[in-house]
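hi! just following up on the protien thing from before. the input was this:
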Amino acid sequence: ILWKKGDLPGAAEAIAAARARLEGAEAASAALYAGRVEFARGKFDDAARFFGEAAAADPARSEAHFNLGVARAKSGDGWSAAEAFRRVLALAPDDTEAYFNLGVAQFQTGDMEGALAAYQEGLARDERVPSAHFLVGYLHLRLGRSDEAETHFRRVVTLGGPEAPRAHVNLGLLLEARGDVAGAIDESRQG
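and the predicted 3d structure came back as:
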């Protein structure tokens, strides 16, 4: 109730008092809730601590590992985030969002090839995600693979969504680099 009323500090205190009496799955649920409260407050390290407690209390609960990964990524700890998303995938190998988030975490660590592989695994499960195609295109671009980048940016344009204008701009830059000025201008106008 306190959470819904916007009293996040009060919700955090109430959860802390209740958590002391809980064990097992109930303790994991309470820790998850506490983590969500801290995440909403922008306290990502505290949220990660609670999500880690939830994962320890119920190691088979992929949601706890997933939330831990998100909190670690928001804290800038790509290494720990990647580890958490790998645990999610060990529990739920078809979790498309976990693959995409693993890609984000690996990008944070500077592992472009690992990020690309994670995104491609996610796209193999759901190829209709424009933001994932955009990031795969971007990674290919960073890795010097303009043909592959173009394929994914064109897929973004086909799928539409908020990434489409940026995909047009990137396509324009690719075409300009290839000497196709007219094509570059056309793409840039669409972006």
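The mean pLDDT is 93.
The radius of gyration is 20 Å.
cheers
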